[in-house]
Amino acid sequence: MDSRKTESLCPVCFERVAAEVFNEGGKMYISQECPEHGSFKTLHFFEDPRLYAALSENMITDDDVFPDGQVLKVTMDCNMDCPFCAVPKSFRNGGELTVDEILDLSKDFKGSLVYLCGGEPTIREDLPEIITRLRGQGKRVAIFTNGIRFSEPGYAGELKEAGLNLVILSFLSFDRGQSLSLYGCDVLDSKLKALENLAASGMPTMLSLIVFKGVNEDQVSKAIEYGSKNSGWLRLVNFKVLWDLEGKQKEIILQNGIVDLVSESTDITLEDILGCTLFSNRTFEILRLITGKGGIRTPRCELRCYFWVRGGRLVPISRMIDLNELIKNLDFLRSKLKSSHSMILTFFLWFPYSLIVRSFISNPDFRMFCLLLLPNLINDLRHNYPLSTSTTKNIFGITVERYMDPSNVDFEFSSTCNICREVKKGKAGYCIEDMKRWHYISPR
Ligand SMILES: [Zn+2]
Questions:
Q1: C-alpha–C-alpha distance, residues 28 and 17, integer Å
Q2: What is the largest distance, in Å, between two alpha-carbon atoms of the chain?
Q3: How many angstroms is it from 92 CA to the middle of ligand 1?
Q4: Spacing, Cα 361 to ligand 1 middle (Å)
Q5: What distance in angstroms lies between residue 41's CA and the mean position of ligand 1's atoms?
Q6: Ligand 1 centre distance from Cα of residue 22 (Å)
Q7: 87 C-alpha vs ligand 1 centroid, how far in Å?
Q8: Where are the alpha helices (DSSP H) in 137-253?
Q9: 404-407 long-range contacts, Cβ below 8 Å, gap at least 24?
């Protein structure tokens, strides 16, 4: 690949402009051409050509699909004041949506998952009511939280009772000194208590961990180890690249840096991660075709790896079955499904039985995986549940995520975003609008 045409934002006026992505000296760059402000060039948000190639060329998405998740900001207020927060302080007292307004925003959204965020959603006393009524609309509900309220006895159970499906907990470090310096206050005990309470109530949870260069890199292995011991309720650890709103790219650990840290503590390679990423992309695309449910769950900007936790040992899916061959089989199955009028029949006709049977015979891990987890897995697949809210225990996922910076937006990638922030548009890539707004409002 020499170069690829796409669209980006002019870093000065933030208008959508023509752009080009190209490889120069082994790194991927994006250049923008604004009729008014001239040309710009910066590193692509996937600067590693291997990541860029895998995610731009090998991911598939049907044209007519929509994001599976909707983000609703239920309050802009917060009970913490984290130095790295991307929400400008001037937004803090921006008022709250009423419960009816929230339900009104979600009712026409076609995706299956609503993310409640803020600010800090748990400072709303009516949060259980919001959750219950969203579940009444047939949505699954997740919240982004700093976890402080979950340290209170009974709170996790109360939200679970209300119908909450997933807690996404900001958790940066198990080390008191690191935690203090990153959050700007001593919250470690509250966070640990929150984890204890989430575990006791069996609440499906995902840890969200931004990796800060020179501060908490050692927490990548700590979080993975914690996840492998708690996979009954801890479904995912999401490692995040710090969102670079101020052009400090050199001080930031990028996706490759995080993948290296993951590799050091799990022995999985970039190839395992890319294989798992493409596998989950194909699986969800096929499930969507068959069930007619759910939207985009695998954006082109996210790496993921799934493991079966077998007796405390992490077995990546890529080590249980030949993923390259499986992906080829799934591509063929998908092409058959797309031209079929009887999905179920086509599915059973072209399902890759021989690969499954061969792996079942030759791979002891895969054999036990099928025997122990198949009933739950079939239930999840039938309902097209994502891993975060699946009913199958002891599957653990690692994701590596990076938001595009204002300077390196690539609309080819953002068009497959799995979350949207405004229901009327209902289209992927809307987060760009947020970025634009923050760019103008936050001091730079
Ligand atoms: Zn411009």
A1: 19
A2: 64
A3: 30
A4: 60
A5: 13
A6: 21
A7: 25
A8: 155-162, 176-183, 188-201, 219-229
A9: 404/45, 404/301, 404/432, 404/435, 405/45, 405/243, 405/244, 405/245, 405/247, 405/249, 406/9, 406/11, 406/14, 406/245, 406/435, 406/436, 406/439, 407/11, 407/40, 407/42, 407/247
> What is the CATH number that goes with domain 63-320+363-444?
3.20.20.70
Any idea how long the chain is? Answer: 444
Least confident of 60-64, 130-134, 404-408: 60-64
Residue 231 three-state SS: coil
The full set of domain ranges for the chain reads 1-44, 63-320+363-444
* pLDDT confidence of residue 23: 96
Q: What is the pLDDT of residues 189-215, one digit of tens each?
A: 999 999 999 999 999 999 999 999 999
Cα 75 to ligand 1 centroid, rounded to whole Å? 33
Is the pLDDT at 415 greater than 70? The verdict is yes
Ligand 1 center–CA 127 separation, angstroms: 42
Q: Which tokens hold the place of 63?
A: 């044209």
- Number of helices followed by number of strands (H, E) in the chain: 15, 14
How far, in Å, is the centroid of ligand 1 from the Cα of 96?
A: 34
Paired tokens of 321: 């079955």
Instruction: Please write the tens of the pLDDT for every residue from 166-188.
Output: 999 999 999 999 999 999 999 99
The protein residues having their C-beta less than 5 angstroms from ligand 1 (an ion) are 10, 12-13, 34, 36-37
What pLDDT does 384 receive?
80
| Ligand 1 centroid from CA 12, angstroms | 5
